[in-house]
Design goal:
The structure holds two protein chains of two kinds. By secondary structure, chain A is of the alpha+beta class. Helix content of chain A is about 45%, strand content about 30%. Chain A has two helices and seven strands; from the N terminus they run ααβββββββ. In chain A, strands 1, 2, 3, 4, 5, 6 and 7 form a seven-stranded antiparallel beta sheet that branches. Chain B has one domain. At the A-B interface, helix 1 and helix 2 of A face helix 1 and strand 8 of B.
């Protein structure tokens, strides 16, 4: 009688332990799924913000044609043929020494053609960890040559 | 020596299991809420900025884009060709509104269509090195620029 009771108790605890193990496994999987979803959401947000920033930089470059003038419009700094601007998480211009979230660079190059001077810009938006969120290429005719702006995304 | 009650041990295990389940459900709900909130904010920001940018680009013609004082912050007045009508885009009561009405009409959300949630809208003209006017749009705290090719926009 006593032996049967011990067996029954052992069986009960075994069931509980198996249930606990299964439950923990499901929990681990769910946490991983949620973590992955959060990571994807963060990446999507960075891509959205990066695209918006690149588009703005392209507009500024289209109205400027040079790195210095582009930086002035964007509220950033220019070093040679590269304009750099920093933004916070709300896509507002931020100081380089602040806790910025995005960095946008506009690399400008000029090409003399039969039609006139074409300024090209390669625009990239970086997250704070250095990954590229978005990039964009654009070209513009410099004033006094042809006029107008052409985009090549 | 007093023997432990096996039912008490089982009860403790069930209590642990239930507590862990509740904790997991709570954490999951919080994570899900933060994900959906973040996505909603992104969509609102993207929708508002992209919408205004697109509307301004579409209305880029001589005297086609004007900046007015709106009910809350600035407002955009975009001419509809030479029809005498204009599209007013403004922020009011936490939403972005689009109103198509005869030029010079007052702002009225009764005659407007809500576009997206919007806490604030600020518009400022800048000038590029080429002389092209650049409209700086600040909606929900986020900035975007639009360069206007026609070059004849003005603030009211």
């Amino acid at each position: 009688m006593n032996e049967q009771r011990v067996k029954s108790s052992f069986s009960f605890y075994l069931q509980i332990l198996i249930l606990l193990a299964v439950f923990l496994s499901v929990g681990v999987v769910l946490v991983q799924v949620f973590a992955a979803a959060r990571g994807m959401s963060r990446a999507a947000r960075a891509e959205t913000d990066g695209t918006t920033l690149c588009r703005s930089a392209a507009e500024a470059f289209g109205a400027s044609g040079t790195a210095e003038a582009t930086a002035a419009l964007l509220g950033g700094t220019a070093d040679g043929e590269t304009a750099t601007c920093y933004y916070d998480a709300a896509i507002r211009a931020a100081a380089p020494d602040s806790a910025w979230t995005y960095r946008v660079t506009v690399n400008v190059s000029e090409e003399e053609t039969a039609a006139g001077t074409i300024a090209a810009a390669h625009i990239e938006a970086y997250a704070a960890d250095g990954t590229v969120c978005a990039s964009l290429d654009t070209e513009t005719y410099l004033p006094g040559t042809k006029g107008g702006t052409a985009y090549a995304a | 020596m007093k023997q432990k009650d096996p039912a008490l041990g089982a009860l403790a295990l069930y209590a642990m299991l239930t507590a862990a389940l509740l904790l997991l459900a709570f954490l999951g709900a919080n994570l899900y809420a933060s994900l959906t909130d973040g996505r909603a904010q992104d969509e609102t920001r993207r929708a508002t900025l992209a919408y205004i940018q697109s509307r301004v680009m579409a209305a880029d013609a001589a005297q086609g884009v004007r900046v007015l004082d709106g009910p809350e912050g600035d407002a955009l007045a975009l001419a509809v060709d030479d029809s005498g009508y204009e599209v007013l885009i403004y922020c009011d009561a936490g939403r972005l509104w689009e109103q198509t009405s005869p030029a010079g009409s007052d702002f009225s959300t009764d005659a407007a269509q809500a576009i997206a949630d919007c806490d604030s809208l600020a518009l400022a003209w800048k000038t590029g090195a080429t002389g092209a006017p650049v409209l700086e749009i600040t909606a929900n705290g986020a900035n975007a620029l639009v360069a206007l090719r026609s070059g004849e926009e003005q603030a009211a």
